[in-house]
């Protein structure tokens, strides 16, 4: 009997260890294993954890700062919990938008995580094939050279065609010459008769800008509403006092019910316009990267520089991945307003 009890105890201990090993797992997968150079792919890392057998705490996925062979264009995370027959399970996921740096076969390495007991769990490496950019189409083969007999016949045909074409142009010129001369002399006569009237009409244009301003029956000039402009370097931009970034964002939020990628594209356009008006060192022909780089060179505060880096990452996610940022809009808008206040002159 003592021997049977020991065997039962060992069996229960083995079952408990096996159940605990199954209560935590990690995996990594991509949406596709073959992409073209310049495209992006999605890498999803998932941590699954059972909540039974007294396990009531959750684990978060550590962020991955760099992946060899890829640029991280953006990240997004989420968590969900479900219960089936009284047994709970929680899943934590983080998505990375990856852009390959070179063409060829690139291996995404395995990622290792510790469970609450300190045991290591690793994902499997993933191989991705990056196709090179589309090459130029091959040039058509050079046609076979014609034989001497064909060349002689072709030359004779071309000479005859050229002679007939020249003769046709010559006849057409002789026929059209009288009409051309008649029209030319008639036009000169009309121009001589109308020239005094033109001189008289030109006399009414006595001041600059008269051709652009209309006058009403009372003699008062009618002009369009003027827009105050300021000149910075070689470009002309609207005066900063005429742009209210907060009011423009409020109007944009009324137009869009959802903060999707189209909403954020319009939002970043408003931010760019407000930044250009607030600082004389920013110019219209700057790209997004050049604009944020110039802002980082100008500001002194480390907090503003950090906000600039975060906003640049959000903009890249919208532009290249056509996805809304993972951060909340209120946080993004706070960073944008902090940058605008810092560069305002």
Word description of this protein:
There is one protein chain. The protein has 345 residues and is α+β, with helices and mostly antiparallel strands. Among the domains are: 21-131, Immunoglobulin-like (Sandwich), CATH 2.60.40.740; 229-343. The protein is 43% helix and 23% strand. The protein is built from 7 helices and 13 strands. It has helices at residues 2-22, 148-202, 245-255, 261-278, 288-298, 302-320, 329-343, and strands at 24-30, 34-36, 41-50, 70-84, 87-100, 104-108, 112-114, 120-122, 126-131, 214-215, 221-222, 229-232, 235-238. A 4-stranded antiparallel sheet has the order 1-3-5-4. The longest helix is centred in the middle third of the chain and has 55 residues, at 148-202. The model is unreliable at 17-21 and 190-241 (pLDDT under 50).
Shape field:
elongated
Main β-sheet description: 4 strands, antiparallel
| Low-pLDDT sequence parts | 17-21, 190-241
Mean pLDDT: 75
Q: Compute the number of strand runs.
A: 13
Q: How do the strands line up in the largest sheet?
A: 1-3-5-4
Describe the structure concisely.
Helices cover 43% and strands 23% of the residues.
Summarize this structure as a short list of keywords or feature phrases.
345 residues, alpha+beta, Immunoglobulin-like, four-stranded antiparallel β-sheet, three-stranded mixed β-sheet, 7 helices, 43% helix, elongated
Give the topology.
Layout: H1 2-22, E1 24-30, E2 34-36, E3 41-50, E4 70-84, E5 87-100, E6 104-108, E7 112-114, E8 120-122, E9 126-131, H2 148-202, E10 214-215, E11 221-222, E12 229-232, E13 235-238, H3 245-255, H4 261-278, H5 288-298, H6 302-320, H7 329-343
Parallel strand pairs: 2-9
Antiparallel strand pairs: 1-3, 3-5, 4-5, 6-9, 7-8, 10-11, 12-13
